[in-house]
Amino acid sequence: MPTVVAFENLAELFQNNVRKYENSDKTAFAFKPSSDSGYRKIRWGKVRDDVHALASYLADKGVEKGDRIAILSENRYEWAVTDFAIQLLGAINVSIYSTLPPGQCEHILRDSGSTIFFVSTGIQLKKAIEVFENCPDLKQVIAFDKPKVESQLQEKYVSLFDKVCAEGFKMQDKHQDTFKKRAASVSSEDVCTLIYTSGTTGPPKGAMLTHRNLVSNVKAVHEAIHIDSSDRCLSFLPLCHAFERTGGYYAAIAGGAEIYYAESVDTVAKNMLEVEPTIVVSVPRLFEKIFSLVMKNVKEGSLFQRKVFHWAIDVGKRYMNGKRGFTAIQKRVADKFVFDKLKQRTGGRIRFFVSGGSALPEEIGTFFMAAGLNIIEGYGLTETSPVMTCNRYGDEVMGTVGKVLNGVTVGIQSLDDNLIIAQVSGEDYPTDLTSGSGEILNKGPNTMKGYWKNEEATREMIDEDGWLHTGDVGKFENGRLKITDRIKHMIVNAGGKNVYPGPIEDLLKTSEWIDQLMVVGENKTYMGALIVPDFEAVEKYAKQNGIDVGSRKELLKHDLVQNLFSKEIRSFSKELASHEKVRDFRIVPEEFTVESGELTPTLKVKRRVIEDKYSHLIDEIYSEDD
């Protein structure tokens, strides 16, 4: 019996889950009302009532099929209720990152022509009030939370979510047929959401994703990865990003899994212990932080403890590579004395993690796999709904992003002559295919309809033959896709050599002393790096070596600290080609963050922003070179 409900659009996904679970005690969602409370579970009967009430209210306010409804919110239950109400009415969900400043919110609201704006907290409501008068199509703002600043509620266009739903509940008889007919009229080619790009290379563009795009991708994901009603997902990546939307939301719901919302990105470690999830969808940053913490603890242990740990890792690697017999006995010992402790920190029930959004360093992925914590790495873009390829559970190969999904075709186009040098479709899989490098292309039902009101940008992204150009460079190795880097990230040094910074950064990030970094060197004779250190590790090192300075900036300039990083960079650079070696660096005294504008909401480095902000440090690196 299939675990995935039948559905051809997102309205049907909601309706068929309701039919399947509404009379059971099955948990659909769960959240924490406050930091000191337990999780509150929401069952499907409650979800049905809330979605129908909100859909009735919106219908009464004149929301028509194709209207754009915007959401500015962190991940939470009300986000899902609003989304499903939008889908029932055949409207379009315009998703906005909660970290965006008012100006960017205004651009998205104006560009999309959104008529109703849902916001979460008082902070987000403040943004809505600031931009409301500048958005001519906007008629109403609906706040999930009651703001602490009462004056925010004095604006005639602001309503509270609870009151709106209460009004809608009274109107259900009046509008029941309305949203039933609307849901039935939804076509697979109708746009269901606009997801705006992060805008690192210009104003954000709205990717138009249709019901067919997302539904085909959810079904293909389920063919590759088993998710069922016994699973529990911890949700913390932004729902306004395609990765979480498809993998951690629609795919989870389609399989009947429970979705628990983390309180925030900062509380994920704590929430994993409370929720005991079986599946966690994440970006590499989470795994990098866990890896760094484990390695710190190992270093601080006794010589015997360090030897046991490294023995356990070696056993785990042999076991994951298929060794059994005596290795299987050793693995049980390694689990008991080493790995089970790590598994308990993740809640103790993890079946697998899913990693995407950016490249997972191979060494870190191998560490988790050796510990028995499987990571399924995938690849795709917002514009591909998003998944193009992924590893399969039990068949993971670290350093690759796996095999092409069913229904999807991936091509490799030569960077020299623009010829397609490899083409793989998910249904007919050449497991022995190895190709040269080139730009990765996508074709299939997951390809977006285009960019909202931007035909020029659409033509730049999707060519006349229907190939979507990802801007990423990769190749096939034994039938699996391997990402090299992004074309626009490629550095051309003074000697004309092409250098892709991604693999260099992934290597250096495994250092116990490095938290974040960015490689630089355009038109220069050698590579340099801006390094954000692991401040806790550096401060501990300073204390152990009797370094007593007043400020963090002074500490990072100290000769012993500078020498520490010089040795570390030289050590890691031995593994790199001559033109890839990092010859000099500068230490950045502050972490790259979303709030400071240096990271995207999915924690990717904004290279141009960092280059501009720290241009003086880059100039110092190359002062003698110039």
Jot down its keywords:
single chain; 626 residues; Rossmann fold; GMP Synthetase, Chain A, domain 3; 3 domains; globular
Please write out the topology:
Layout (H helix, E strand, L loop, with lengths): L9 H12 L5 E5 L8 E4 H17 L7 E5 L4 H12 L3 E5 L5 H11 L3 E4 L2 H10 L8 E4 L14 E3 H10 L1 H14 L5 E6 L9 E5 H14 L7 E4 L6 H13 L3 E4 L6 H8 L3 E4 L1 H17 L2 H18 L5 H20 L6 E4 L6 H9 L4 E6 L6 E4 L12 E2 L4 E5 L6 E6 L12 E6 L6 E2 L3 H7 L6 E10 L2 E7 L4 E2 L5 E2 L1 H8 L5 E7 L6 E7 L1 H10 L7 H6 L1 H15 L8 E6 L19 H7 L1 H7 L5
Parallel strand pairs: 1-11, 3-4, 3-5, 4-8, 5-6, 6-7, 10-11, 10-12, 12-13, 13-14, 26-27
Antiparallel strand pairs: 1-2, 8-9, 9-20, 14-15, 15-16, 17-18, 17-19, 19-21, 21-22, 23-24, 25-26
Helix pairs in contact: 1-2, 2-3, 2-6, 2-7, 4-5, 8-9, 12-13, 12-14
Structure description:
The protein is an alpha/beta fold. It folds into three domains: 10-186, Rossmann fold; 282-348 and 350-487, ANL, N-terminal domain (Rossmann fold); 490-621, GMP Synthetase, Chain A, domain 3 (2-Layer Sandwich). The protein has 21 helices and 27 strands. It has a nine-stranded mixed sheet, with helices on both faces. An eight-stranded mixed sheet has the order 7-6-5-3-4-8-9-20, sandwiched between helices. A five-stranded antiparallel sheet has the order 18-17-19-21-22. Strand 21 (468-477) and strand 22 form a beta hairpin. 48% of the residues are buried. The model has no long low-confidence stretch (mean pLDDT 93).
What CATH architecture of the largest domain would you give? 3-Layer(aba) Sandwich
Number of individual domains: 3
The name CATH uses for the topology of the largest domain is Rossmann fold
CATH homologous superfamily of the largest domain - what is it? Answer: ANL, N-terminal domain
Beta-strand content estimate: 15-25%
- Enumerate the spans where pLDDT stays under 50 for 5 or more consecutive residues: none
Tell me the span between the first and last alpha carbons.
68 Å
